[in-house]
Amino acid sequence: MELRGEILLPGAAEGPLLRLRAPISFWGGVDPASGKIVDVRHPDHGRCVAGTMLALPGTIGSSSSSSVLLELTRRGMAPAGMLLAEVDAILLVGLVVAHEMGWPFCPALRLDAKTFAALDQVACRIRVDGTIEALSLGSFSAMP
Amino acid sequence: MTILDAFERRIAEDEGGAAVAMRIVAESARLLGAPKLIPIASAHIDGCLYHGDSGTLFAEKLVAGAARVQVPTTLNVGALDLLRASTVKLAGEKRAMARRLMAAYEALGCRPTWTCAPYQAGHRPAAGEDVAWGESNAVAFCNSVLGARTNRYGDFLDIACAISGRAPLFGLHIPANRRARVIVDVTGLSAHLRDSDVFYPAFGSWYGKALGETIGVIDGLSGVAGEDRLKAFGAAAAASGAVALFHVAGVTPEAADVAAALGAEPAEERIVVTSAMIASARDDLSTAEGDRIDAVAIGSPHLSFAEFEALAAALGGRRLAVPFYACTGRHVVRALDEAGRRTPLEAAGITIVADTCVVVTPILAEIAGVLMTNSGKFAHYAPGNTGYSVQFGSLEECVESAVAGKLVREGGLWN
Question: In the CATH hierarchy, which top-level class contains the domain A3-139?
Fold first, then answer.
């Protein structure tokens, strides 16, 4: 089955899927230098968002989450792509600013609830037309 | 799709910092599904706190592009105390980049207020005005207590709105989205509890967890909920539950009474608050056990002059046995100096922290210690941001504990 999302920020990307089990605040939740999830109360504490296709069930809106995502982007430690269950204007402003700074930034898609729930592949690719293709794990030896 | 008018389009298609700002606002509006942009009357900026070099590079790009804010704009805390350099231990390259960040925001034309309580430093938009404010407690106060209209504007979008003089039309800018859905009934709580300062951060912490982004109207605080209490309540509620707007019947401008706050529609729910619920929220704010305390910090949001007077009264000329940090804005430091009130406080052992605070930058001694506070917001953020565990208590308990060098509790209030 081919999945499709609404294009928020266009682009193509691929990587291992990291589907978070709970909403997260990037500020205080993700280390801006390494991409590691540092919120000790988060079920995915210790995983790393860098280079992943990051599926976010929701965000907790700290107003500095945009700063953390911009810093990850500048350091090359951002996710490869973002798959969002709901639009978070604060977080994505970090990518809008990266665009203005001339720094490469990751694409972002919004998925409806059914599509988000259907994400079960170990790795995937976003195409520029907003479709999501499953990939085999073979091409990704370095799982986060 | 977001429609820009001819003026906005011309700016966005131009070059320089003003164009960057307009494009950021327009792109954000598109992501939010806002139909158009609206003019704003003022802004309050949270993006001046250092989180990494990218924020400094962005602000300096705006400066290099000759951007200037188009509306009166205040600044939230930075990572440094510019009045007394030794307060903050941030060192080396990070300190230099944090200083450059603060300088860049000043160069954009923002007022160097460096406070999370801009509404007590003369920045008070009128009820019904559209503004673009950042910092969660400032947003809650601006919407709820002043009745001005703002969403929770995050880093970068806040300054982009200030430079463009525009904000996306969505969320709390739309009057229909501001009405209460839930009644929070505190009329059953004792009058003594409702008239106690320490009730407000504890109640706020409960409220944020219980309501989240659902808008409520609180019934039962008319006559007792003064400005500093609403400040403490809103900060705690915004920290625990992203609360951007609350109403208090008979107190806040959109709530002449409960029915007015509900927009003359029926409430979806009525929550009857018990003292046990608030006592439980109060207990959750403390993470430490035993009677050890290593430091006391108050002033999140930044202390008002009146709160310093309450501190001096509680202290009664005694000396403190542990470090005691009182965080505030330079507007209050100036007033303390003029009134001759600062020197006696410092002589008693109080460190007055200006322009910043203890949970956003390294100020506390680097130990795995216990911090006592009367702030719901400090209690929420101290464990993650400083490594200290927390004892939450009233101002009087904080002062008595600091004098004794160990935890001192008063009894009775919550029963």
Answer: alpha beta
